[in-house]
């Protein structure tokens, strides 16, 4: 190849490479994805779809756009240009590092903007300069160290969240454009600098959440400045993620005392009991100051509610006495210490709680022994108590608890659930007005008369109960039995006042109208998530009772999706109200009985029909004939060998007893005395004695060349003549149509012959009868023709 051609090819390759590079370097705008998950409310859910750039949407006037949990790294100037109708924009949990300063300028109607948990290293006030309608702004997360210069006029902003682990400074003027806030959340665990007054112009503040773990430990002056700026008498203050271990860490709360903050909540806080005591001393001044401000005098009986929800308690074995704040404890009416690993409240402390009406020690480490100490061995000191909640502890004895509370005359509500009870004593002693008892989530296997008869609400859910009987509760209005192993509804007559019954997640197979009829006042029932046997009775009752067919006083308050068939297997998993059962499945006994009745009736009709058409005789004669043919065949084979003779008679005479005189006086002499003589077989003379008459008839007919029927009215109605006609009929079927000779003693129609002898009737229609003449001069011809017929002459 020449050098010129080589250079030409190299130049072309370079041009192609440059062209492809230009194609790959087209602006990102042309590669934007499209999100089509928009609904009729103009809400586009584009969350968690791995978008790397702000996508376009199929709705032109989208109001809410959710772009959270994607991989967007930047927001360009034109990315949001088409979303001028937007009211809510969610950009949280992306990887946004840069936003063009004019990116939000066309979103003048935007009311909510969430930019939390991205990778923004700095905040630009220009982003918000045109967002005059913005009310909600979330800037939590990211990695900015300061808020940046203020001056943006966000006059309508009401909810603001900012801060992250990297936030170090909040300077005066950072929020200069914000005037009024309802809610403020500050995340400043590593905050090192705070200019006093930076948050002082934000008013009114309804809820303030402060996450200042580091400053509470290292810079209480900084915390005091913040609390001074955000504390108002009506502000609900939430202090989260803090460690309060010593008296010095409580010092900043003197600002809340001076500002007369009435509501403080610790969330996910780590406290020691020493810190709690110092905080209560500090907080008491707040309440006292509020009271004096309102009434100008101090009422020593002033009471309030102490609430503490703990996730972690430090130095649990380092006791600090609460006696120094006894002046405060005696005015407490409600105490809630939840999930704080408390295992005892000394009786000396309990003696100070003379005004307490509500005590919640749930989720702690109380045992039977320590609860005995906390309630002063049941001597009835806490006589004003109306509610006790000691659920989720380590209690084991129901009998002991009943003794400890029996002298609390005003106790109406007792929650001792989620403990380690395994049995219930036969009898117990309870306060006379106890109406609410919660014994759920234990390990009880049966109930006893230990339950107080004054109960109105009883919760025994999530135990191991298999039955509930013999315990009458006449005042009970609400019964919770979900999560047990009950196989049937409790007897309704035990609860004449019951209005609400919850019995979900048991092993109920079914229930019916008789079960519910015993509950005279029941109005709400929850019985889903059981192992229902979808029988016809149960399905029809459920559909008829609650499927819209009738309006009843009892209402199913859980969803139909909870009522699923467990058996039979083909219906497993189907909703009860959608089950379609066949008529046979629902009325099997009736249908089987009807079918058996029809079969019986058909059998009776069939037997009657067989009797009418003489089928029984027909079958019997067929069997006898087949037997005779087999014997005859064997005899013929013997005759072929020359060992026996075949026929003994010229004719077998079949006649009625009423015609015997004619046979014996006329027929026998004329045929047996003729030349040559004919041999006749007569039943009176030639049948073998001791043999079955049927066998004699068959044997005689098989050994006779002809069968001579003497027909008359007597013959037709003779039973034995019918046998002989039957066998003759079978012989005719066997092909020997010359075997029968018919003699009519008197005129008789073929219709008098039974219809089942069809071939014999046909022969009577096709052959000439030998009729016995009444005139003497014709009898000679009659005998001549009869001899000829018996000997096998031509057809007459």
UniProtKB/TrEMBL annotation:
Q: Name one GO biological process term.
A: toll-like receptor signaling pathway
Q: Could you name the Gene Ontology cellular component terms for this entry?
A: plasma membrane; receptor complex
Where in the cell does this protein reside? Membrane
The keyword Glycoprotein is annotated on this UniProt entry: yes
**Matching PROSITE patterns, A to Z?**
LRR, TIR
Signal sequence span is: 1-25
UniProt membrane topology term: Single-pass type I membrane protein
Entry GO MF terms = transmembrane signaling receptor activity; triacyl lipopeptide binding
Which Pfam families does the UniProt entry name for this protein?
LRR_1, LRR_6, LRR_8, TIR
Using the record's annotation, list all stretches that form the TIR domain. 647-790
**Membrane spanning residue stretches:** 589-611
- Cysteine pairs forming cystine bridges in this chain are 38-44, 347-376, 428-450
Q: Which UniProt keywords apply?
A: Disulfide bond, Glycoprotein, Immunity, Inflammatory response, Innate immunity, Leucine-rich repeat, Membrane, Receptor, Repeat, Signal, Transmembrane, Transmembrane helix
Q: Which Gene3D superfamilies match?
A: Ribonuclease Inhibitor, Toll/interleukin-1 receptor homology (TIR) domain
The task this protein performs is described as:
Cooperates with LY96 to mediate the innate immune response to bacterial lipoproteins and other microbial cell wall components. Cooperates with TLR1 or TLR6 to mediate the innate immune response to bacterial lipoproteins or lipopeptides. Acts via MYD88 and TRAF6, leading to NF-kappa-B activation, cytokine secretion and the inflammatory response.
Which family is it part of?
Belongs to the Toll-like receptor family.
Q: What is this protein called?
A: Toll-like receptor 2
**What species is this protein from?**
Oncorhynchus tshawytscha (Chinook salmon)
Query: Gene that codes for this?
Result: TLR2
